[in-house]
Amino acid sequence: MAPRLCIKCQSSKAMLKRPKTQEQVCRECFFALFEEEVHETVVQTKLFKHGERVAIAASGGKDSTVLAHIMTTLNARYGYGLDLFLLSIDEGIAGYRDDSLETVKRNELQYGIPLKVVSYKDLYGWTMDEIVAQIGTKNNCTFCGVFRRQALDRGAVLAGANKIATGHNADDVAETVLLNILRGDVPRLGRCANIITGEDSSLPRVKPFKYAYEKEIVLYAYYKKLDYFSTECVYAPFAARGFAREFIKDLEAARPMAIIDVIRSAEDFIFTTASEDKLPQPRTCERCSYISSQPVCKACVLLEGLNRGLPRLGVSRTRGRRGEKAGLHPDVERIVTTQAASAVRWTAPGVSVDKEAVGSSSHGIVELAAAPVSSSSVEPLPAVVASCIAQPKGEEGCAPEGASATALLQEAHTGQGQGGSAAARAGDTVLGLEGGHVNGSGG
Amino acid sequence: MVRVHIEFSGGLELLFGNQKEHDVDVPVQDGNQGLTAGHLIAWARDNMLRERPELFMKGSTVRPGILVLINECDWELSGAAESLINDGDCVVFISTLHGG
């Protein structure tokens, strides 16, 4: 085939066919088009405000490296006025994360923006390798996703950021839409295609690459010779997302616009009032004050499971089938009815718990939080977490100004804040829907 | 025989003995006009791949999600699997199937 000229500039040889638009363009025009489209997305969706301090979630992988490059470029070119820095999470996966962190350290030098690293070990006391050794490889991605989400928030708060930017691309969002449909996760389905999530919170998250095709990100990085790390997480072969990814890739091969179409469909989903009532309302976790849709946030539930040697805690569902009452997970029920006092949990030292609140009922994890615990076995929150707990938003659980993190926790535990007895929290507390937006390529 | 310089990246190199760059001589079948990209890929799978062929090929072509560049040009411009590979050409396979 005779070499064609670029359809845009008509002067250089066409080097690639844009997966998104099928246009045949040269390298320079491709760069310009790609960058321009991201800029348009940023402007039209009002992604940033002048002067914001933005944490770029960076893993050293293709998306986050290109994101760091593009954000730095556009920030300078169009005068966004943003204070950018790189935020990396060390999950403690040998042979994967330690190598990719080296890449981010190089990115710090290459783009001239500072780097902050936060580790699971520091925040939670567990590395992913230790977690997998404990629970196996079936639900480890759940742990990693939930912990990483919170770790990013904690790290961003520690570094004084107003916003987090992640490198999620169009393929990622389309895969997530599919996953949520397959799982019947209605609340997540309504949120997952949003370009800004948590805009009412103190730390919204944005996805500047929401409409950028993964192939284009890779081609951009290749032609620009950007330095990125490209090995799969060692636990990835076990992830459910792999199936969604395979499907999306096949769809793309058949009809490239399918990816954008899936995203547009999700954007247009309207949920009827009946299902809206079931949507969980944001509140704060009683243990760590992180944002949560349940009384105890998912990360705390998962950690409880890890620390007690109950791998299924927080992972398996307790919602009953139609016609049946919701039941407690067998492990939880055992603890509640025998009132085990040897639990290790995070709480303010010396806090006592309302013993009357304990009893067997179908309120799932709420009972666990109220189980009596001897004061000698309580553990204070790791200092790094306690120091960066943000003030909870909203009327519930508001502490007077200047209250310390310990006081906040104390309030929550003695039920003076948003508390009330367990019985008051009636309803279907499913150990399923919670905070973490589990995703395969988060950083 | 057609001499081809092949590069693997994006994690694909792990399937090919952890080696990113290879220089190979690929035989052309009698009766064919030349070496097509599709034929090169099948040859690479049969002669160079150390493990997990399903991660490189699906059916008779590369797994969706693997980009192919011939002399820095997207193979979509030259007919994809029907593209002709000439002596001395450089073919790059980039996998996009990993975390970002």
UniProtKB/TrEMBL annotation, chain A:
Keyword field: Cytoplasm, RNA-binding, Transferase, tRNA processing, tRNA-binding
GO biological process terms on file: tRNA wobble position uridine thiolation
Domain Cytoplasmic tRNA 2-thiolation protein 1 C-terminal: 284-313
CDD domains for the chain: CTU1-like (cd01713)
Molecular-function GO terms, alphabetical: transferase activity; tRNA binding
Stored Pfam families: ATP_bind_3, zn-ribbon_14
The organism's place on the tree of life at top rank: Eukaryota
GO CC annotations, alphabetized: cytosolic tRNA wobble base thiouridylase complex; mitochondrion
Keyword Transferase attached: yes
Domain tRNA(Ile)-lysidine/2-thiocytidine synthase N-terminal, residue spans: 54-231
NCBIfam families attached to this UniProt entry: TIGR00269 family protein
Protein's UniProt name: Cytoplasmic tRNA adenylyltransferase 1
Protein source organism: Volvox africanus
From TrEMBL, chain B:
Residues recorded with modification 1-thioglycine: G100
Keywords linked to the UniProt accession: Cytoplasm, Isopeptide bond, tRNA processing, Ubl conjugation pathway
Localisation: Cytoplasm
Gene Ontology terms describing biological process: protein urmylation; tRNA thio-modification; tRNA wobble uridine modification
Pathway(s) where this gene product acts: tRNA modification; 5-methoxycarbonylmethyl-2-thiouridine-tRNA biosynthesis
PANTHER family: RURM1 PROTEIN (PTHR14986)
Protein name, UniProt field: Ubiquitin-related modifier 1 homolog
